[in-house]
């Protein structure tokens, strides 16, 4: 394939909006976090015309906020142990074949990134749920930022910033591009294939470690086009967020930080053999219950040497609250952190719709199951970003003549301050049937509207409201407790199954 410019500027009116620009490309990548940018690097290497867009200024998305690092198996013999840890965290819903293939491919990507000069720390560290120290950091606790900067620096054409995808274009049953809202107005991008890399939906929750732009847009674009979404009820809560939403990474517990309740008791050993290093769901629930029982939970980092050098972000976040972690206990609570569910893909990043691919947090590949193992997500973004880009290029169709833009799903942004606290109550760490039903009735009474065109804020509110409903429906259907989903009224695990939603149909699909 020869590289050409992707912007033939052709203006045309779109009723009620500024003039519509029409662009054309081979591969349109929505999102410029780790998955989107790494995918673009591989697509560029193939010589494909590639357009990457990000609604937020770079470095955007959750990627730059990642502190802990990237989990790579230590060597070929560690793949089995890493897989075992991943299976254990995922509580019966990890697709072992997919997970094994991702872990087997991981060392290739570490070598590639090292050969590009990315400054991985030579000593891996151990994080929650990992049986060995295999998480690689970059730049102290700013791993995601350093990773993303390193990748962005290698792109020959930087992502376009300030472009929000509002809906997908369809040509027959094939996804053929997207309708974007850019700084100059609407843009219709016709594409041979579209790769969703738009991240998760942490901002649905009142306390989240994810940035405000994490509104699950890609999942909603895919759902509106008819793709299958899977296991949306599995939202991982990070057990140790500060009151300002800033995260205190698991790595701190990996090097000795301990959790204390309001009475000064170290409680984790009562909940799990691994103590503070138990999987996130176990720690988040323990923190939830101890906060209820004793009124507060604190993280004690005072015994960690060289705290400022090892965890500069944590020290800065604590100082912003007037606390000094070398002498003070830090008050912590669970916060929405990572979405395990998403657009269902196969091991190559292909969704259930022709022309549509997904990678990173927007996707549900089967790696995480009911609970993500710490630091497996950046790894997944890398491996699946590459696979999805190459699979999309294999299946490229020439941009169609007259694709149709699907309507944009919208809601009034003014409803979000009402919606989020209710989400926190009903869809948080501990769920219960009556509360879920009441929440669903409330959310279904809020207005969700289809429009030919919308502002970014209306589209994001539409995404969040739809996802609130879908998460609640999945959580109601899942009458069991598994991984990150805990039902007070069904505290035991049942038979493993996935939930899948397509249009208005929600169903149980047996696992395996
Ligand atoms: C505080 C924090 C710490 C974390 N620490 C770790 C860690 O140590 N290790 C680990 O493995 N994982 C970690 N995670 C999770 C990990 O960072 C994310 O899962 C991962 O970065 C997601 O990458 P992504 O490329 O899928 O999406 P993101 O990095 O979230 O990027 C999404 C991109 O999509 C764009 N976008 C969204 N909607 C639209 C739209 N409608 N139109 C156009 N563009 C759009 C955004 O602007 C952005 O460019 C952490 C997450 C958080 C929040």
How is the topology of this model organized?
Layout: E1 10-12, E2 20-30, H1 34-45, E3 50-54, E4 70-71, H2 79-90, H3 96-115, E5 135-136, H4 143-152, E6 160-161, E7 164-171, E8 174-182, E9 185-196, H5 217-225, E10 229-230, E11 235-241, H6 250-254, E12 258-261, H7 268-271, H8 280-294, E13 297-300, H9 307-310, H10 312-320, E14 330-331, E15 333-339, E16 342-344, E17 356-358, E18 363-364, H11 376-394, E19 404-405, E20 408-410, H12 416-427, H13 433-445, E21 449-451, H14 456-477, E22 497-502, E23 505-510
Parallel strand pairs: 2-3, 2-9, 3-6, 9-17, 16-18
Antiparallel strand pairs: 1-2, 4-5, 7-8, 7-19, 8-9, 10-16, 10-22, 11-15, 12-13, 13-14, 20-21, 22-23
Helix pairs in contact: 1-4, 1-11, 2-3, 3-11, 5-14, 12-13, 12-14, 13-14
Question: Explain this structure to me?
Answer:
Helix 1 runs parallel beside helix 11 (376-394) and helix 3 packs across helix 11. The chain has 512 residues and is of the alpha+beta class. Strand 8 (174-182) and strand 9 (185-196) form a beta hairpin. The strands form six sheets. Strands 1, 2, 3, 6, 7, 8, 9, 17 and 19 form a nine-stranded mixed sheet that branches. The protein has a five-stranded mixed sheet with strand order 18-16-10-22-23, with helices on one face. Among the domains are: 239-335, Succinate dehydrogenase/fumarate reductase flavoprotein, catalytic domain (Flavocytochrome C3, Chain A, domain 1), CATH 3.90.700; 408-510, Up-down Bundle (Methane Monooxygenase Hydroxylase, Chain G, domain 1), CATH 1.20.58.100. It contains 14 helices and 23 strands. 32% of the residues lie in helices and 21% in strands. The longest helix is centred in the last third of the chain and has 22 residues, at 456-477. The model is unreliable at 1-16 (pLDDT under 50). It has helices at 34-45, 79-90, 96-115, 143-152, 217-225, 250-254, 268-271, 280-294, 307-310, 312-320, 376-394, 416-427, 433-445, 456-477; strands spanning 10-12, 20-30, 50-54, 70-71, 135-136, 160-161, 164-171, 174-182, 185-196, 229-230, 235-241, 258-261, 297-300, 330-331, 333-339, 342-344, 356-358, 363-364, 404-405, 408-410, 449-451, 497-502, 505-510. Bound molecules: flavin-adenine dinucleotide (FAD). Flavin-adenine dinucleotide (FAD) is lined by residues 30-36, 53-56, 60-63, 65-70, 143-144, 163-165, 197-199, 209-210, 213-214, 217, 247, 337-338, 360-362, 375, 377-378, 381.
